[in-house]
Amino acid sequence: MKPLPDALLATIGQGVQLIDTPSLVVDLDAMERNIQRMADFARKHRVRWRPHAKMHKSAEIALLLQQAGARGHCVQKVAEAEALAAGGVVDLYISNQVLAATKLLRVARLAAQLTARGGRLAIAVDSEEGIARLAEAMDVAGSADGIHVFVEIDVGQGRCGVPPGAPALALAQSVARHARLRFAGLQAYQGSAQHLVSAAERREAITAAVRAAEHTRARITQAGLAVPLVTGSGTGTLVHEAASGVFGELQAGSFLFMDADYARNEREPAQPSFEQALFVKTQVISVCDSHAVCDAGHKSHAIDSGLPTVALLPPERALRYANGGDEHGLLYADAPQARLPALGRMLWLVPGHCDPTVNLHDFLIGVRGGLATGVVERIIRVDARGALA
Amino acid sequence: MKPLPDALLATIGQGVQLIDTPSLVVDLDAMERNIQRMADFARKHRVRWRPHAKMHKSAEIALLLQQAGARGHCVQKVAEAEALAAGGVVDLYISNQVLAATKLLRVARLAAQLTARGGRLAIAVDSEEGIARLAEAMDVAGSADGIHVFVEIDVGQGRCGVPPGAPALALAQSVARHARLRFAGLQAYQGSAQHLVSAAERREAITAAVRAAEHTRARITQAGLAVPLVTGSGTGTLVHEAASGVFGELQAGSFLFMDADYARNEREPAQPSFEQALFVKTQVISVCDSHAVCDAGHKSHAIDSGLPTVALLPPERALRYANGGDEHGLLYADAPQARLPALGRMLWLVPGHCDPTVNLHDFLIGVRGGLATGVVERIIRVDARGALA
User: What does the pLDDT average to over A233-252?
Assistant: First the structure.
């Protein structure tokens, strides 16, 4: 584990103004309000929530979510599951396809470990070969309790998953034939709907996804196989899956921190009002007549969903962040009353996309009492940073 | 230090086919040929080379480059300098602006350490305030030997740096007034020229940059101050800076690994023929009628300079990589004789941009004997991964 950034960037008890830059800062008050809103939402809709840990990648945060009512956690990678399990998380679902024999042996080993610790491991499949390889690994490991298996259907994203209906039924039946695989239901995530700008488009996409999941569930049930759960959804569309009567579990993860991309999209009225809780603190290191330069570039924040915005400024004095490369950001004062920030000034950026931004940092610096006058309360390790395999 | 990926992804002596995915693999033969080409080029043009370690971030590689003739290393961040110094590198240049008092104290401390180890530390400045703060930190540290200081001029990139001519002279004179700051010359990097597609545009941009640097050097010299060195350049334009008679040192770093963005640009005839040495190994984890899905998304490779290309396939059977999100890539068989790859197949991607791609990984897996039948020879730690501050 790297000790350096911990000591260098911030110290617990220190004022927020002393946090070094560039660094990833969490407004703990805002994060906790987001957790409460999500817990209330799930309770009201009588739906489970299994937040996606591919976003925060931290066992400490996973355990916080669990205390608030989350029913286990999703991950995308075997190494993420292992990192969270090492940090005390015992109910995990790898909501992704795993094909490599070495990884599947790790999956089988982890399934046995988590079961022994009173938890469980689940995984998704979308092919006969995937099922056969998983079953083989489970047989080699010889675990008695087996593993929970979701069949992934493509409900409109066009990425992984078999088509809804008959192909999913065939896979569910294959899962059910293996003694160590337990058919757990359907994985039905419409990922591309999360970031559609208009609320109407998102509603339309999820209406189609719900119909596909419902139809597939009926096909499997008619064939005599119980479908214990339909799981999916994300922060952009959870209102619709929660109200569907088909989805029993929500996988939303971004609600915890939010990002500039979600902020740009039209809000669904019924959506809980999640607030921005994740920021990159940055310092102005160069100023000239036309622009200022800050010390956060795309090694500090991901730009796959757009550039960051500059937070905490009124619209008439807004600063525009432009791409300055790996280590720099360019700041322009386009707004009517905007002025270029002074050399040395600290600014707060809202990253374009929270998940891959967190993955660039070894630590999250948790601040209590706001970004203006708050204090560093905890430094949270990003346990699964870089856990790709 | 994270021990996990080391053990999980590859073992020294193992065949290349057993490297787990997604992982960052270096073709050591290709890398060594690139180093030799760069060393030959610098010798022929009688110019020093100080490769930019912001790209590889590894002390082990920095020492390899040094053995081949590199005269020290550039970095962009104080934490990068500290990580390389901890790995045995003693001649370092922070080619960037540093304004924070805490960081400048670290700079002062590192300068004293490197001098004591027979090396040296240099840094760039582009403001009176930057110079005053650096001088103060050096005085607090009380180091007798001081620090080498380059004045950064903006030679066309429009990022950091003062305008060429009089403003640079004023800063050089300010540097010279401080006992512990040694004026070392001019930092003149035209970063935006590196990625211009046409060779003619790159030549034009560097012609202007050379003129600006030459004029500024003359102004400072006429004022009675020696300008020991003009330093700058990158892999895309080094032919021009090397031939300029003005630049005494080349900072190119990407030549070592190369990337898809450099490969897309028109090659300058005099440019050494650097070859691709950096690859993301990935596995196909899902296949349907229209596309295949691999396990490498933009948490495995940076997409700021475009998506990766699929390597080692003849043009008529080329596969097109499309964005599948944080953890997935979509593969399409558009080419006339292309076929979708089978489930489980291993593929090799050429990242769009080498620097931020390396920064996503804790280890580089070094392969000897090629990607088809080679063997893992060494696993290289990315010492400064995430060293942002």
Answer: 97
pLDDT digits (tens, 9 = 90+) for A264-316: 999 888 999 999 999 999 999 999 999 999 999 999 999 999 999 999 999 99
CA–CA gap between residue B76 and residue B87 (Å, rounded): 17
Residue type, B92: L
CB B361 within 8 A of CB B371: no
Contact B159 A328 (CB under 8 A): yes
- Give the gap in angstroms from C-alpha A389 to the nearest C-alpha of chain B: 6
Mean pLDDT, rounded, for B28-37 = 98
| AA letter at A157 | Q
Task: Break chain A into its structural domains and give their ranges.
Answer: 4-24+274-381, 29-257
Check CB contact under 8 Å for A356 and B385. no
Query: How far is it between the farthest Cα atoms of chain A?
Result: 73
Domain B28-256 fold is TIM Barrel (3.20.20)
Strand A230-232 to A181-187 pairing: parallel
pLDDT in tens, A103-161: 999 999 999 999 999 999 999 999 999 999 999 999 999 878 899 999 999 999 999 99
CB within 8 Å: A20 and B285: no
- Chain A, chain B: beta-carbon pairs less than 8 Å apart: 187
Range B4-24+274-381 has CATH code 2.40.37.20 = yes
Residues B335, B315 contacting (CB under 8 angstroms)? yes
Asked whether the whole model's pTM tops 0.95, one would answer: yes
| ipTM for this prediction | 0.96
CATH (one of 3.40.50.970, 3.30.1360.70, 3.20.20.10, 1.10.600.10) for A29-257:
3.20.20.10
